[in-house]
Amino acid sequence: MIGKLKGLIDTYGEDFVILDVGGVGYQVHCSSRTLQHLPSPGEAAVLSIETYVREDQIKLFGFRTDQEREWFRLLQTVQGVGAKVALAVLGTLQPSDLANAIALRDKAAVSRTPGVGPKVAERIVTELKDKAPAFASVDPAVVHLAGAVDDQRAPRPVADAISALVNLGYGQPQAAAAIASASRSAGEGAETAQLIRLGLKELAK
């Protein structure tokens, strides 16, 4: 099983690169984001590799980091997500942004991926929500609040305040982060209007 390849960039294809390792050219399929970050032909590159062995073919997938490869594997645990869709997601969102989107239940961010509709985005966010926080860089309190809102467990003033900010044009993750901070400042029992006011102050910082 091939886990890593280090060699010289030979040529680029539409969704792959030929990596020359000691005179042997390996065809490695990569996301568009990975391809954009690789050097020019003739220069050295290192790729983390995921090897797929099928009855009729062996296919290599390459990633700039081990974390990106881990997300490639995780995405494919979701029903309806194969290698092609997983690569497309990683071409649209870098691993940290994907982790944040899943942790915050931001289905819209995931569905920006070409070929990923609302249903698949919903499955990705739902099925990976317990794994994403470990990779996410957002405040755990915001992750908790986003989950509570998504599951309709958040206190009514909090949910209404987030909804109000979203209606004002802010994204769901931004609104959840602002209201999480506002809730900490105001304490339990804060009214919707107070949370909105404090939330807008947070967003203006």
From TrEMBL:
<dbReference type="GO" id="GO:0005737">
    <property type="term" value="C:cytoplasm"/>
</dbReference>
<dbReference type="GO" id="GO:0009379">
    <property type="term" value="C:Holliday junction helicase complex"/>
</dbReference>
<dbReference type="InterPro" id="IPR010994">
    <property type="entry name" value="RuvA_2-like"/>
</dbReference>
<dbReference type="GO" id="GO:0000400">
    <property type="term" value="F:four-way junction DNA binding"/>
</dbReference>
<protein>
    <recommendedName>
        <fullName>Holliday junction branch migration complex subunit RuvA</fullName>
    </recommendedName>
</protein>
<keyword id="KW-0238">DNA-binding</keyword>
<keyword id="KW-0233">DNA recombination</keyword>
<dbReference type="Pfam" id="PF01330">
    <property type="entry name" value="RuvA_N"/>
</dbReference>
<dbReference type="GO" id="GO:0006310">
    <property type="term" value="P:DNA recombination"/>
</dbReference>
<keyword id="KW-0067">ATP-binding</keyword>
<dbReference type="InterPro" id="IPR012340">
    <property type="entry name" value="NA-bd_OB-fold"/>
</dbReference>
<dbReference type="Pfam" id="PF14520">
    <property type="entry name" value="HHH_5"/>
</dbReference>
<dbReference type="GO" id="GO:0005524">
    <property type="term" value="F:ATP binding"/>
</dbReference>
<dbReference type="InterPro" id="IPR000085">
    <property type="entry name" value="RuvA"/>
</dbReference>
<dbReference type="InterPro" id="IPR036267">
    <property type="entry name" value="RuvA_C_sf"/>
</dbReference>
<keyword id="KW-0547">Nucleotide-binding</keyword>
<keyword id="KW-0234">DNA repair</keyword>
<feature type="domain" description="Helix-hairpin-helix DNA-binding motif class 1">
    <location>
        <begin position="73"/>
        <end position="92"/>
    </location>
</feature>
<comment type="subunit">
    <text>Homotetramer. Forms an RuvA(8)-RuvB(12)-Holliday junction (HJ) complex. HJ DNA is sandwiched between 2 RuvA tetramers; dsDNA enters through RuvA and exits via RuvB. An RuvB hexamer assembles on each DNA strand where it exits the tetramer. Each RuvB hexamer is contacted by two RuvA subunits (via domain III) on 2 adjacent RuvB subunits; this complex drives branch migration. In the full resolvosome a probable DNA-RuvA(4)-RuvB(12)-RuvC(2) complex forms which resolves the HJ.</text>
</comment>
<keyword id="KW-0227">DNA damage</keyword>
<dbReference type="Pfam" id="PF07499">
    <property type="entry name" value="RuvA_C"/>
</dbReference>
<feature type="region of interest" description="Domain III">
    <location>
        <begin position="156"/>
        <end position="205"/>
    </location>
</feature>
<dbReference type="GO" id="GO:0006281">
    <property type="term" value="P:DNA repair"/>
</dbReference>
<dbReference type="InterPro" id="IPR011114">
    <property type="entry name" value="RuvA_C"/>
</dbReference>
<dbReference type="GO" id="GO:0009378">
    <property type="term" value="F:four-way junction helicase activity"/>
</dbReference>
<dbReference type="InterPro" id="IPR003583">
    <property type="entry name" value="Hlx-hairpin-Hlx_DNA-bd_motif"/>
</dbReference>
<dbReference type="InterPro" id="IPR013849">
    <property type="entry name" value="DNA_helicase_Holl-junc_RuvA_I"/>
</dbReference>
<feature type="domain" description="Helix-hairpin-helix DNA-binding motif class 1">
    <location>
        <begin position="108"/>
        <end position="127"/>
    </location>
</feature>
<keyword id="KW-0963">Cytoplasm</keyword>
<feature type="region of interest" description="Domain I">
    <location>
        <begin position="1"/>
        <end position="64"/>
    </location>
</feature>
<keyword id="KW-0378">Hydrolase</keyword>
<keyword id="KW-0347">Helicase</keyword>
<dbReference type="GO" id="GO:0048476">
    <property type="term" value="C:Holliday junction resolvase complex"/>
</dbReference>
<comment type="similarity">
    <text>Belongs to the RuvA family.</text>
</comment>
<comment type="function">
    <text>The RuvA-RuvB-RuvC complex processes Holliday junction (HJ) DNA during genetic recombination and DNA repair, while the RuvA-RuvB complex plays an important role in the rescue of blocked DNA replication forks via replication fork reversal (RFR). RuvA specifically binds to HJ cruciform DNA, conferring on it an open structure. The RuvB hexamer acts as an ATP-dependent pump, pulling dsDNA into and through the RuvAB complex. HJ branch migration allows RuvC to scan DNA until it finds its consensus sequence, where it cleaves and resolves the cruciform DNA.</text>
</comment>
